[in-house]
Amino acid sequence: MQQGAFSRLADWSSRRPWLWSFVGAGVIFLATIAFTSGKGGADVLAAALTFASFYVIVGIGQMFVITTGPGNVDLSIPANIALAGAVAMKVMDGSNVMILPGLAAVAGVGLAIGCFNFALIRILSIPPIIATLSASFLVQSTAIAYGRGLRIKPPPLFAELATGRLLGVPILAIMALVVAAVMAVVLRRTVYGRSVLAIGQNARAAGLAGIRVERVRFATYVLSAVFASLCGALLAGFSGGASLNMGEEFLLASIAVVVIGGTSVAGGFSNVPGIWGASLFLYLLVTMLNTFGVGAGVRLILTGLIIIAVIALSGGRRAGRG
Amino acid sequence: MSAFVPSPRLVRAALPALSLAALLVAIWFVQPRAISYFGFNLMLNLAMPIAFATIAQLCVITVNDLDLSIGAFVSFVACVGATWLNETPLLGAVVLLGAVAVYALIGALIHLRNLPSIVVTLGMSFFWLGCSVLLLPSPGGSVPAWLAALVKFRTPFVPFAILVSAALALIVHVGLMRSAWGAILRGAGGNPAAVARAGWSLLRTKVTMFALAGVFGVLSGLSLVGLTTSADANIAIRYTLLSIAGVILGGGEFVGGRVSPVGAVLGAMTLTLAGSLLSFLRISPDWQIGAQGAILIVVLALRALVNRLERRR
């Protein structure tokens, strides 16, 4: 009897690979709260929701790219964020009226970077890792040249959007939740989302079944780049201006949240809820280490080791080359 | 007529050398005085550590993995070189050996658990960065005198950096491309199943290649800190991307164990010299990484063209 219940539980959780990221986030949250004996729990949670939102937005784009199969990954995200942040601040120029044109310009940046990435992959048949890497070199240089000495504050309304709260919940988190819900439906219920999954499982079979493989991959790289650009704009709004190294941490973060969230690096199997769980986990981990009062060095070491431990334990089911 | 058209294979093999030659011609055209002993000594000053890091990356790419932690690792070695290796040489040496062992361990972990190397090595990049920050919270330190003297050694006629790079390319070429062991190591990247069926341990090949990557990473860090004489935790962060670019520029393929040590060293030199050309052209250093990206794209485009011609035959 007990055996049956246990194996049913194991079966239930194995169909929900995202469960573990939420369990991990919960455990870390409780450990942090226990350390401060309950003080500041709500603040920690609000901050976690805000910072996790950035990870979520970027992570969803990265997840779609990784889902399209082994070797697919978008390394241009950090450079993209830096450029998009600078473009957003320059176009908006601190005025509320220019917020929408600014966001349109940012989406244009994402679109251009996505198209460029895919052009390198498709026309020059460069492996995606190298293609997005060399594209990121160019984007990074553009961001440096364009954004040097940029000291423009975000428009008040835009800053409010990025930092404000609605009924105690960060507006940003609500937006990210909506985006995640929409993208979960896109992944599971639309022709595009199912095509992405099919291509990741077997690109050849998907092609023979009539899926326009290259068109879907094109859309996926553009999607990832546009999400990263929007995240760059929001990040600039949140931190009161764009900075050039704003996107640095998102290279690891975007890949880590996808993997910790239970998405297969080999492609073809992914889920959106895990991105939220993993993003909360990643941010709460740093908060916990800060609360415990460890220095920057120890924090970096533990962050690295815990990420490795998580993926070593969750295992590389039919994992290929990442 | 067709007898004079070189085979695509030859063109592909010559591409790294041709890119470097094209770059040298461009430099000579812009600044003829740079093409001299002193000019090369200055321009290729930092080619040595970059070449070592590129070969480290090549070892990992040979077995179908990718090392995103090499930049952080080289920085860590530089920090050890500027602190412990100077103050307590024995401890420094033990730590560096231990670091190589960690690299081997990572190779074993990736193989045994069948993990995606880019995630594991991204995690390791945090680990090494954290170690560096603990060791050297602010830039500084000083290197042992012997190390500084060694890397600044002035050889007659040909700058030391070129001699070391040539020797490195030759040794790795013989070891990896011409020896029986090298064939197995590359085979583990080309067709792991076949190598395993033939009775070789894939675990051992992976551990070997990661350990070698660690050794070359140590050499890179030591030669870098010997040149700069002080270190900081972020000193070589950009080597991660630079080393991958060098391997690919040099004709390496991403999968299948198809690599070229000579090409990789030439690729590293091309990327190093690209910076010099830009400064001779008075182009802002802002565009330096952009230019490296552009070189990468142009060379890969040429290679794609050669491959397409080959298929047409």
UniProtKB/TrEMBL annotation, chain A:
Give the transmembrane ranges: 18-37, 44-69, 99-120, 126-146, 166-187, 218-238, 250-269, 281-313
One family name in Pfam for this protein: BPD_transp_2
InterPro entries cross-referenced by the UniProt entry: ABC_transp_permease
Q: From the Swiss-Prot or TrEMBL record, what is one GO molecular function term? A: transmembrane transporter activity
Keyword annotations for this protein, in alphabetical order, are: Cell membrane, Membrane, Transmembrane, Transmembrane helix
Q: What's the superkingdom here?
A: Bacteria
Keyword Transmembrane helix appears in the UniProt entry = yes
Subcellular localization(s) per the UniProt record: Cell membrane
Q: How does it sit in the membrane?
A: Multi-pass membrane protein
Cellular component terms (Gene Ontology): plasma membrane
Annotated PANTHER family: ABC TRANSPORTER PERMEASE PROTEIN YPHD-RELATED-RELATED
State what protein this is by name.
Ribose transport system permease protein
TrEMBL record, chain B:
- Asked if the record carries the keyword Iron-sulfur, the reply is no
User: Entry's InterPro entries?
Assistant: ABC_transp_permease (IPR001851)
The entry's keywords = Cell inner membrane, Cell membrane, Membrane, Transmembrane, Transmembrane helix, Transport
Q: Which organism is it from?
A: Chelatococcus composti
Q: Which GO terms describe its cellular component?
A: plasma membrane
Specify the protein name.
Ribose transport system permease protein
| A GO MF term | transmembrane transporter activity
Annotated membrane topology is:
Multi-pass membrane protein
List residues traversing the bilayer: 42-61, 68-85, 91-110, 117-137, 157-176, 207-229, 235-255, 262-281, 287-306
Where does the record place it? Cell membrane
From what superkingdom does this record's organism come?
A: Bacteria
